[in-house]
Amino acid sequence: MKKLLLSTLTLLSVVATAQLRTPPASPSASLTQTIGTTDITIKYSRPSMKGREIFGKLLPFDKLWRTGANGATQITSSSDITIEGQKLAAGTYSLFSIPMMGHFMVIFNKDATASEANYSKEKDALRVHVSTVTIPTKQTFGIDIEDITDSTANLNIAWERTLIPIKIGVDVNSAVSAGIEKMNADNSNNMANAANYLLGKGQNLDQALKLVDLSIGSNETFRNVWTKAQILNKLGRYTEALPFAQKALSLGSTDNSGSFQFFKEAIEKGITEITSKIPVVAPSVLKKKKK
To answer: Does the reported pTM lie above 0.85?
Structure first.
């Protein structure tokens, strides 16, 4: 009997002390997005309208807002970026804003845990004015990153009928150039990737050619041979490019990874294109050369 009573009391104690989980009024959210070579992470809470008028009422104009609910909204960047063209150093910041009619003041503060109560303007890392855009009603506050390229994106803050699109910029070229300088020349994949990047940008093609030659010297594949053909083609060295394009097609036919099928059509078209750029020498000219 005593054992049964003890077990019952223990069970009641556990139930009494266990925390009941109920739906939060403003659920937490997070997102991580890569822009070029930079990772952006945002952690925040998401309040909903619930029939309330938000900007100008619940959130008065010209008054500091933590840009979310509950604790500080935090944004972390793995490397230096630009916000609306202004530099923001790598790190973690609290995100504040000041709603205004037709635009917002967006604030990145060095105190990552700051609240409206203990916010200090002296700790601001950056302030930017951003014009707002009218959108269809959005019941739940949200932050996301859209319109992504390899060096730009929009950090979109939206609630009610207001969108604040904040332009983010990443200096990918400097990051990649610094990475290329530190690369191990024996790593064939890294060399090929670097050459492909420069090829895609149409920049430093002579350097791209050196990099792909190092890649081929380390481990020849249809991919790096095809990359070399494309670089030579862009440099206008068509007669040199053609045999490499043809070799890429030949190497690909014996590739067992299965990835060649994704490149085969492009290589075949490339061979046709490069061939069309090579001047045809008339037979009479060839005879004169033989003499």
So the answer is: no
